Amino acid sequence: MIALKTKTELARMADACRISAEVLLRAGEVIAAGMTTKELDTILREYILSCGAKPSFLGYGGFKGSACISINDEVIHGIPSKKRVIAEGDIVSVDVGAYYRGYHGDNAYTYRVGEVGKEADALLSVTEEALYRGIAAAQPGNRIGDISAAVQGYVESHGFAVVRQYVGHGVGQELHEDPEVPNFGKAGHGPRLLPGMTIAIEPMVNAKGSGIRVLPDGWTVKTESGSLSAHFEHTVAITTSGPQILTKV
Length: 249
Ligand code: MG
Known about the structure:
single chain; 249 residues; Creatine Amidinohydrolase; four-stranded antiparallel sheet; 4 helices; 15 strands; globular; binds magnesium ion
């Protein structure tokens, strides 16, 4: 069932989403070569708590971090670790959510640490633009497939591949709600977008091939080919006047 939010509910959800966006700004300020992913996670958790919010991901399905931090060929769900040191030239995706007054925000950004290679730079630019192409397609009256096709078409036109086993989702009182928002699909198909729907649009894009594998830790998802992967995400409300990005400051 797809939950439609009232204007009052959307305003409350916007607060949770704004905090989530601030957490990513904080990540961008502090991320640096030499830092462990655990150190970064701790800084982000403390920021969330200082806002009077709770980290949406901490304890979710037993997850041991406040943020998923995934480096280079890791696609998503990297577990913060004292042993994992961020290095110059890495691309680091941070996926994080804040739960505040009954609602979740969910967003992700992939950071360039220092100078990154040409392919990494292109992958990040294409994945971020794919997110905005998806958001632009999130018009009331359109369908989920319009978002999916916009993301997939843009990514594949640049020779990269969307991940298929993991998808975007509805978000609100629960971190993961209906509907699923795949990064591949056909325009004109899927559930219709209605005002009051709130969805996380989140392209996960591999430089080579859509294949992935899950590590024995049960969480970390890597590309099958060993190629780089990027992830960008916003929580978006469908409104009568078009898509509204909630995860912004
Ligand atoms: Mg998400």
